Amino acid sequence: MERVRRLTFSPYRFADSCKMKRETMVVAIDICDRFLGSVSTSSRHHFLGSKVWYQLLVTTSVYIAIKTAEDTVCDSQFIADLSRGLYSKESVERTELDILTALDWHVNVPTSIQFVYIVLSIVRHQVHLPDSTWAPFINEVSIQVENGLKDYQLAIMPSSILALDALLNVTSRQECHIKHSLLPALVRVGREQFLMCPQSQGLGVGLLRLQDTLGNDNDVPFLMQCPEVAGCYYEEENNKKKIFARGVNESHTCIRQFSDAELGL
């Protein structure tokens, strides 16, 4: 799977050469992944078992994403021409219909990058940092999200969780004054919006593999330093906030108790 997964990322080169938004390619990858997750096992093996068929699926997903997210107009013949004869205009159109049918036409769901913007739109009202800080910060978060999509196990995580994971990772590597401003706000948003969600199991674990170093900085949320657990979540007990780990045996162990001050509340 990882071998064919690498084929997915030729759309980024296509976007750069055509001066399209890289976010459009994230939409395409999301469409491709959701399609593979919604079809039968035999259909999934059909596309994953052949480089040509998988490229057809990815290219058609790009075609759908362009029509959804770009002002550029292109037709199925143009997409077929990109394959240099590997597949026809009719193959593109048939695959497009298969994708749209499998996804019930839900092709424009929020992506990880869009969730990053949603979270930051909340955080920026709570944190006052120079405008010059945000552009490089968002760029680094975007790179982490793109890197996360190259790992299939991360790509199948909910987009909101991958977004928050990348935000926490990048924040942990900022200068101290930026980190101290951002972390409490991100933890607050994460606790209220994400961490109580059952799909958040594994938050903070997967993207650690993509970082050079994270270190053991005490300012980094503890859940980011626990790759041995399968997931973490917050819970209140006796008016005190605790972070729990769900182990592989589904048992629950309190691994740290947070004060309001530590959470910036």
UniProtKB/TrEMBL annotation:
Gene3D superfamilies, per database record: Cyclin-like (1.10.472.10)
InterPro entries documented for this protein: Cyclin, Cyclin-like_sf, Cyclin_N
The organism's place on the tree of life at top rank: Eukaryota
Domain Cyclin N-terminal: residue ranges: 16-108
Pfam families found in the cross-reference section: Cyclin_N (PF00134)
UniProt name for this protein: Cyclin N-terminal domain-containing protein
Organism: Thalassiosira oceanica
Lineage: Eukaryota, Sar, Stramenopiles, Ochrophyta, Bacillariophyta
